[in-house]
Amino acid sequence: MINGSYNQSRPSSLMNEYASLLGGAVLRHRTHVAEHSARIEAELASRIKSEFIANMSHELRTPLNTIIGFSKLIAQQDHRSASRDEVIAHAHLIQDAAGHLLAVINDILDISKIQSGKFALNSREVFVDEFLEPCVHGLVLAAKDAKVTLTCSFDDTLSAILGDTVKLRQVFINLITNAIKFTPEGGTVTVTARPHVRGRVLISVRDSGVGMTEEEIQVAVTPFGQVDGGRNRWREGTGLGLPIARALVQLHGGDFEIKSEKGVGTEVIVSLPLIVEASKDQRSKAPVLVGQTAP
Q: pLDDT tier at 100 (50, 70, 90 boundaries)?
């Protein structure tokens, strides 16, 4: 009987020992994977922080140097005898530099408020064309200067959403500006809005620009991260535009998705909840050509 009990308990003991060893191995593997992921995230955060400091120094110094330099020239008017046209030109340059500096500071303040949870929306019932059309038409000249074709079209069945008009305009001005900025001459930027089957509106900003890899998309939506973070990058920016846009969309109860292919282009899709599914105002929005590609 003793031998029988021993023989029966022996396999059970071996199984328990094996399970213990296997559990320990799984735990060690998971710990290793977690440590590896944490190390990669820490390295990425450190690199983004270093690039942000370098890029932000550039973003702040450039307009400040312009403001200081040209204001000094205006202050020396009595000694230099500059013409009226020169003084006006200097004043415009100072104004442009100050505007750029203010935009950089506003971006930093916005992302700080969002991350601290202190950002509030002033929401009301608003139709898509109320915030989207001004964004598109306001960037017509920018598109023409960049020699990019900009088009927009809205579905005529769209109803209202509950949103902050000012912040929604901020989102799409940023997205369309980015699309124009990273699209070579002769390229296209298309803005569309259409209803979704689940009572949401899908707004798409698609370009035929340089595109991004999956890794670059992750960097682009990280605060202060830039796909081309070097000082000699071909496009200026603080690396805050996309993170702020995504955060504002999420504050509206929406979804933010980026689809991109290197050398082909990028599409940013914003999904926002509609108040009702039926249209309150059947306003036909045929595609409108608002930009022109230079020959």
A: confident
124-289 maps to CATH 3.30.565.10: yes
Q: How many CA atoms lie within 13 A of 128 on its CB side?
A: 31
Residues 264, 279: Cα–Cα separation, whole Å: 35
208: phi then psi, degrees, rounded to nearest 5: -110, 40
- Residue with the two structure tokens 């442009």: 96
The answer to whether the 57-116 and 124-289 domains have the same CATH topology is no
Compute the Cα dihedral for 255, 268, 245, 126 and give only its sign: negative
CATH class of 57-116: mainly alpha
Q: Where are the beta strands (DSSP E) in 47-148?
A: 124-126
Residue 234: pLDDT band with limits 50, 70, 90 = very low
Cα Rg, the chain, nearest whole Å: 27
Could you give the CA distance from residue 111 to residue 244 in angstroms, rounded to a whole number?
6
Max CA separation in the chain (angstroms): 117
